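Project standup — Tuesday

K.O.: blocked on the structure for the chain from last sprint. Re-posting the sequence here as requested.
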Amino acid sequence: MCLLVYILTNVVGIVDIWLHAVTTTIIQPTTTPLDTPFKFGVDQVLCPPYPDPWYEAISPCLMQSGGWGGGVSSKIPGMLVTANNSDSLETITLADANDMAILVKPNIPRDLMFRARSFGARASCQSINHLCKENPVVNCTGFPSTFPPYNALKPSGSTQLTEGDSRLFIQSSNCPWDIACPHVPSDQITNVAATLNSTVPPVNAYNLWMQFAWEAEGDQDYGLSQNVSDAIGSYSNVATMLSNCTLYFYNVTVDYNNGSYLLVDEELSNVGLSDGLGAPARLGHFASHLISNIEGRAFTDTSTGDLMTYLQQDLSRLALGSAAVITNISTDTLFQSSLGSVIVGRYPFWPIVIFLALLYLLAALALVLFLVMMISNRAESVVFRGDSRDGGGRQMSILELTQMRLRSPLCLVAALFPPQRNETDRGALSIETDELNLFDEKSNDERIQVGLHSKGSEFGVFREQLWQSEEDGRWTKPRTQMKELN
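H.V.: unblocked you, prediction finished:
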């Protein structure tokens, strides 16, 4: 049995070394829920839903005579957001959510997690260069005669561009691109006198017919490289890009986790809100931003699809940000948590299983040994015969006698100062189970005392003979033979 315990102990040590050699440490993220919500949600302060039923005389949200917003002060929040200079809002694009642009709060700590409501915009763009022909001016099949608004074939000096100039021309309709409905003419947009009123009930789907135009300086020919995509057309010293984008606006729910956003839910906004959000884009408020952002890609991308993807991402981001005056308010998060991390050990499966199995086996073996020893010790007893006090023999368990001596210090005192008895009586006293009976002091015996010696100034444990007074029975006049406890 002892050999088996020795072998198991050494095997456990070897497996322990193996386990530590293959163990690795990892950083485990932790999440702590918080009761107090953050002000990281975005809500609207303007543009309630239209009354039901809708009637034609209703003007879109914030549309007044002379334009949208009623002054520069209402446009400033959008200017700051589109220029990425706002302290209260910013727009980001979620590429994994089909290029949804959303409004979020800037400078949020990374060690947070929450869910919040906000607003989003998504655009779907396509190149329409292939639908337009020169005969003798540029006409696009299926589009109104007002599109494209700029004729790149007109003689030099009669165009709407100057040398080295670039411009974005926009026409808008409040319907899908393949449905006939009124367009906002380009000249009305230019004169800031456009009305976005519809003759049919409006829908949350805004078409932008866009013509990007660049005119070279002097008589330089654009001479576009063969590597430019089919979305760009060249007419002598003028380059153009014709595209159509459909813009939608959404109420969204997003999750924030460690610096990144995930779209959880989206729902088309009511038309009263979407008309207000879409107006700046339809009126070309950020045209200079858009053409500046797109022209670098327009003359370098070789893929029409890639160029249209970039256009729809930038368009939805600018459209949503330019109407920030409508959504410039914070609201509570739906739930929130703080993020942390702890360092934990990662144990391989088999080493830890073998190690635990050996530990349990060793523990079971130790328990068996303990039970066997306990049973065998209880069965083993000591017998003393010829006890002068009871005339017979006594039998006591060795385990019980050992426990008493380990538990009580009186057993040690009795062993150091045994009574003056014969060998048989001393043997009987040694198996007493009461500590006080180990002393067996009689009236004529020396008594064990702890204290100051009667014939000196020494302090200790000693035996001392006492005399009993005949008058009151008290013990007096000691005669002593001291034993010091070393």
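K.O.: great, moving the ticket to review. The two ends are 41 Å apart (CA to CA). The CA atoms of residues 112 and 338 lie 5 Å apart.
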